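Annotated sample (chain length 155).
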Amino acid sequence: ISACLVGSEMCIETGVCAGLLGSAFVILIPWLLPFFYGHAYDEAFGPTGILTLEAVIAGLSSVLLQAFGVVGRPFVVTLIQGVWLSVTVVLLITLVPRMGLEGAAVALLGSTLFRVCIILVCYKVVLKAALPSLIPVPSDFIYLRNKVLAKLGSG
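Output written by the structure step:
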């Protein structure tokens, strides 16, 4: 299915860009949080890092979900999102009272990882397609570099 190939290409682009930006953000958290909010929020360092990782993975899952809409299966997206929301609520109710802020961050990360797993199963079962590549290889970085250079050259 060509939608899956496009999805895989978009995942690599999204994942590499979001991963690089997310990594830079996580490195800068110790300086950014106190600068903007003061030292009263120092305890948010850990949850902020976890939530940054969650945001990168959530972005990838959103890109993966687009393939179902492209092939006319939007109900699959609705089901996946409903299951994901249910898992999120259960994890939040379970982890927040025990772990506080970090529990909330872990709950969101866990439910998002669960959503990605469901999406990948649906790629095989519903779309009957090969799983998209989620781990960038050196050729993906070369492809991305060439795409950026082509855009800069044409602009």
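Annotation: Residues 2-37 form the longest helix (36 residues).
Annotation: The CA atoms of residues 120 and 131 lie 6 Å apart.
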